[in-house]
UniProtKB/TrEMBL annotation:
This is NAD-dependent epimerase/dehydratase domain-containing protein. InterPro entries: Epimerase_deHydtase (IPR001509), NAD(P)-bd_dom_sf (IPR036291), NAD(P)-dependent_oxidoreduct (IPR051783). It holds the Pfam family Epimerase. Gene3D superfamilies: NAD(P)-binding Rossmann-like Domain. GO terms for cellular component: cytoplasm. Residues 3-219 form the NAD-dependent epimerase/dehydratase domain. It comes from the Eukaryota. One of its GO terms (molecular function) is aldehyde dehydrogenase (NAD+) activity. It comes from Letharia lupina.
Amino acid sequence: MRVFVTGAAGFIGRATVQELVKNGHQVLGLARNDAHVEAVTKAGAEAHKGDLSDIESLKSGAKAADGVIHLAFIHDFKDFPGACATDRAAIEAMGEVLAGTNKPLIIASGTLGLPKGTLAVEDTEPERDIPMSDRVKSADLVYALSKEKHVRGAVVRFTPTVHGAGDPGMLPRLIDMYRQKGSVVYVGDGSARWPAVHRDDAAVLLRLVLEKGTAGATYHAVAEQGVPMKDILTVVSEHLQLPLKGQSVQEAMGAVGFFAHLLGMDNPTSSEKTQKELGWHPTQPGLVADLEANYFS
């Protein structure tokens, strides 16, 4: 297949491009600047200039492809509703081009919008009255495209951290914050659990959804159902040689700001249905082992 990948220059995107090319697919990767063109080309894709606000570029990329994997997202927590609105406009544009074709349109979502404290499965309904719930509307849009416009849409929910060597995301930012503050804090008793997945396992899953995913389906990019936050941050504390302590959300905000709310979210999530349906079997190192090996060099 010829696949249009948005976010192709990103951490997950580059691994996805490489996984697709390795398995015989051709990739057209969205690139918003020259540095991204270089990254996309190096990963094995043909670069397609544009960004999420360039609707015509998104349409032409989708039109030139046999399917779309939409990974790009503006991670601006200062204007999260605006970022989500941009995301929906991008999905609508690409969905318009794919309407009536039954071609795949796969989008990234997240597990943090699911109810907390109980094991979430693929059929679990997300919460709609929390700050993260605006992104749920993107998933709703894909389900509607699948049902009404004959698009083979699918939603892949990603874990709070997609880890691996070279990770530019949440964990490195947290580690830098702790280093600057001189201590490592968790929220409450540290029992909150985060699901996790290695980016290479996530890339394999995205390929499998592209190749044989079901229209209107939800899949979970989850290799570990829930790693206790205290286990994660104990590794950070030991490597930074800084004290580890529990705090309330309000106290932790002084050290890590908005991330304090995320540290206290108990988000155990299953991928049993995803693995069974697609034959996906994660093989990469777990989060704690990966932290030990790749986050403190």
